[in-house]
Design a protein that fits this description.
It comes from Anoxybacillus mongoliensis. By secondary structure, the chain is mainly α. It has a domain of 58 residues. Helices cover 90% and strands 0% of the residues.
């Protein structure tokens, strides 16, 4: 019987060692209240959720950005081509004038040779 009582006493001592005191419970309760106070409410969560973009909206923005990038790149290419065309037009104008001058010189030479 004494052995059984010691076993029961040992078990009670172990249980007592594992139990929290009233002060520890009060501290845990205070921490829990702090956590509750800092948590967002369902309404706040729904507001945040409502303000977030959907995957589809993000994909649309991404596609729009890609389109804008393509337009910008195309504009750059067009500007370069316009610059080259201007340069080629100037060169063609110069060559046309030289060709006319050479034709005039050739005509003068033919006229002098024909005399």
């Amino acid at each position: 019987m004494e052995h059984t009582l010691r076993q029961i006493l040992d078990k009670l001592n172990k249980m007592e060692a594992n139990m929290a005191t009233k002060q520890e419970l009060a501290e845990i309760k205070a921490e829990l209240e702090e956590v509750k106070a800092s948590m967002v409410t369902k309404q706040e969560f729904e507001e945040v959720k409502g303000n977030m973009a959907t995957k589809q909206e993000l994909q649309e923005v991404k596609a729009n950005m890609a389109t804008k990038q393509a337009v910008l790149e195309t504009n750059e290419i067009v500007k370069k081509l316009e610059s080259k065309i201007d340069s080629h037009e100037k060169l063609l104008t110069l060559l046309s004038h030289r060709s006319l001058e050479h034709e005039a010189a050739i005509s003068s030479i033919r006229f002098l040779l024909a005399k």
